[in-house]
From TrEMBL, chain B:
This is Uncharacterized protein. It comes from Jiella pacifica. The lineage of its organism: Bacteria, Pseudomonadati, Pseudomonadota, Alphaproteobacteria, Hyphomicrobiales.
Length: 379, 108
């Protein structure tokens, strides 16, 4: 294929989707990748891996990248760029444009078992060149049914990987009984209620993975499944939760507890005020807020707006084509470490009242009703 | 350009995303863009006033943050507003800090 033909193909298809495949050490990432690559729909995928493991991969477009992270603790997305990942993706793009490598319509990045998914995602989103050439696709996280919950209890990296997932593929289910698998699935659902949790051998895995974007308006909508008063799920990666529990660990446990919780509210949301609030919240606490996902009833809009953030990286908001159900309520799910849900609720309410007051005398917009969170997972 | 790390072209904040199919943004035409920018400054200034900071956008393409002593900081990306505000205020802007929330309520 010559360069012009490739350019026109790119113009037709838009940015090339990049799927991040992550999962803790030994959770079966490479085995899953090996199987995914045998499918015809992945024949034109380029694959970037951090390390060549024990499982051999035979694929025509396979490159190795190092874990070279440029991380500045500034609270700004663009300051966290994985240098070598950016170089590798730019090189792939240039080689494809010149016709030096086979055409690829997707990139899969397999990260190391200890990697935080955030730097790779922020590189894709914030790099000035890459952000127009590539887009963030679904994040898939492998969790080993035998040892996965132990990793979750002891290693924050494993929790971050699960929290960032759009799809959680549970591996090694053939090595344990059905009851164990169910318990693992339930725990994962508590930790990340926004992800699809399926076995790694599930026939729908590929179609779920290749859905157009991380938050497709046409895709299966998770929000319909989040009840307004979902029980709060809490876990701790502190060893004291498992076995020898002592009272003096309570405060420490609380400080490190990873919770998912949701809030639901009936009234319209002032978009500008919400944008300022969430930006401030993630600026200060993005290291401990692993995931924010929700739909908002934005004042003045008939259809809902979906928001989706992984740590400080907030994806472009999606204007959905319809409400998932009759209740036109805003719903937001948080996955956070060591943050009391009541504090987020209180903050949200104070900022909402402030935005309503400030904008009440704005003739261009009119009054925005002050609102109050209707229901909280933790209450 | 990012005033913190020097990277170019990072000024598309999610709350003012570039207009594309399916993306929700008010960054569509000149009037909407200006109106939304004015709203954003108004709410941000109500928050910044608690720490005696003020935000302005004299050129429309960059922001100026000024404190009570007249010290100012210029930046180009909306994403840098709160990191810059944190640097210019010893108390900082923590939306989960109860004292800060109380001050915001009092200011209301």
């Amino acid at each position: 294929m010559n360069g012009d033909a490739i350019d026109s193909a790119e113009a037709r298809q838009g940015p090339t989707p990049v799927n991040l495949l992550t999962g803790f050490l030994g959770s079966g990432k490479t085995t899953l990748l090996q199987r995914l690559l045998t499918d015809a729909s992945m024949a034109n995928a380029a694959v970037l891996i951090n390390e060549f493991g024990e499982v051999g991969l035979d694929h025509h477009l396979l490159e190795r990248i190092d874990d070279n992270v440029v991380l500045l603790k500034s609270g700004c997305v663009c300051c966290t760029v994985r240098g070598e990942l950016a170089d590798a993706l730019q090189s792939l793009h240039a080689q494809r444009a010149r016709g030096e490598i086979p055409f690829f319509d997707r990139v899969v990045i397999e990260s190391t078992g200890l990697a935080d998914p955030y730097p790779a995602l922020s590189t894709l989103r914030a790099h000035p060149v890459l952000k127009s050439q590539f887009c963030v696709g679904k994040v898939i996280t492998t969790v080993d049914a035998v040892n996965g919950l132990s990793a979750v209890a002891h290693r924050l990296e494993a929790v971050r990987q699960i929290a960032a997932a759009d799809i959680i593929a549970v591996t090694k289910t053939d090595l344990c009984d059905e009851r164990t698998t169910m318990a693992v699935n339930m725990r994962l659902g508590e930790l990340n209620p926004t992800a699809a949790i399926i076995t790694a051998t599930d026939a729908t895995l590929l179609s779920r993975l290749t859905t157009r974007s991380a938050l497709s308006v046409d895709a299966h909508d998770w929000t319909a499944e989040v009840p307004p008063t979902r029980d709060e799920a809490a876990t701790s990666h502190d060893a004291s939760h498992h076995g020898h529990h002592h009272h003096h660990h309570h405060d420490e446990d609380e400080a490190h507890a990873v919770r998912s919780f949701s809030m639901v509210f009936e009234d319209d949301v002032d978009w500008t005020g919400f944008g300022i609030w969430l930006t401030m919240l993630l600026n200060r606490h993005g290291d401990r807020i692993f995931r924010v996902k929700g739909i908002l009833n934005v004042a003045g809009e008939a259809n809902p707006v979906a928001i989706h953030a992984v740590q400080r990286l907030v994806h472009p908001p999606v204007h959905m084509k319809r409400w998932p159900d009759e209740r036109r309520h805003s719903r937001i799910v948080f996955i956070a470490e060591g943050i009391d849900p009541q504090r987020i609720r209180r903050s949200f309410e104070v900022f909402s009242r402030l935005a309503a007051r400030v904008m009440a005398d704005d003739p261009a917009v009119g009054a925005v009703r002050p609102f109050k969170a209707e229901a909280w997972a933790s209450t | 350009m990012c005033s913190l790390c020097g990277i170019l072209g990072c000024d598309d904040h999610w709350s003012s995303a570039i207009a594309r199919p399916d993306v929700y943004t008010r960054n569509t035409d000149r009037v909407s863009r200006r109106r939304e920018a004015a709203r954003r400054r108004k709410i941000a200034n109500a928050i910044l006033a608690v720490r005696r900071l003020k935000l302005s956008a004299p050129t429309g393409t960059s922001y100026v943050l000024t404190n009570a002593t007249g010290r100012s900081q210029v930046f180009e990306a909306l994403a840098h507003l709160w990191p810059e505000a944190d640097r210019m205020s010893s108390a900082g802007f923590d939306p989960l800090d109860e004292d800060f929330l109380t001050a915001l309520e009092r200011a209301s």
